[in-house]
Amino acid sequence: MKILTPSTVLFVLINFQIIAQESSYDTTAIKILDRMGEKIGELSSCSYTLNNSLDVADPELKIIKYLIINDVYMVGPNKMKIESRGDKGHRGYWYNGKHIVYYSYDENNYAVLDVPPTIMETIDSLNRAYGIDFPAADFFYPYFTDDLIENSNQIVYRGKSNVNGKECSNILAVGSEQSIQIWIDDDSAMPMKFVIHLYKPDSHIQYEGTFSNWILNPTLQDSMFEFTPPANANKLRLIAK
Hints:
- Helices cover 21% and strands 44% of the residues.
- The protein has four helices and 13 strands.
- It has helices spanning 6-22, 27-41, 119-130, 144-150; strands at residues 24-25, 45-58, 62-75, 79-86, 91-95, 99-104, 109-114, 154-163, 166-174, 178-185, 191-199, 204-216, 234-235.
């Protein structure tokens, strides 16, 4: 058994006090985040529209803002369809639990990838291998609140706000590398809006999303998660990064 000397105890207490002073987590904010996580975890299926604005660093123009509209359909744990339109083109993803298809409507080409058997594992693997980001995927991770606490020094409840006619609770999480502001619908407990600021040496990059058209537990046919190549479509091979 290791014996703690008085000096060791004093050192531990001082460091505990420093950590406690540096970190602050509002219990009201945590309860609201947990309620959202529980609601999402209970879903068997959902669909929503997400309007994104994304800042991208450019060596000449500094920062360029891209606007994207995503229509998302999911059936847990292994079916997902996403259609995206906007400044980065018109593209779609179909996932059926065995493989995922990427299709470019603009160029009429597609690629098929074998992927893991669940939505979240597939999102993680595609992000690691190909750098593909999926809209607002973090909200669907079962440990969203825990991850937010781990990466934040402060989480605060900022009161009520109105987003698209819904009364929402406004929560701010501040970390050393980023801040995340989230608006959560008081009635449905679903996220309505978020803004992420990434702290860069010479600028603040912002990523923003607004949810609409939430449908919880809809009946979605398996056929909508299957892809049939259009006539004359070209099959591509994606190269891992």
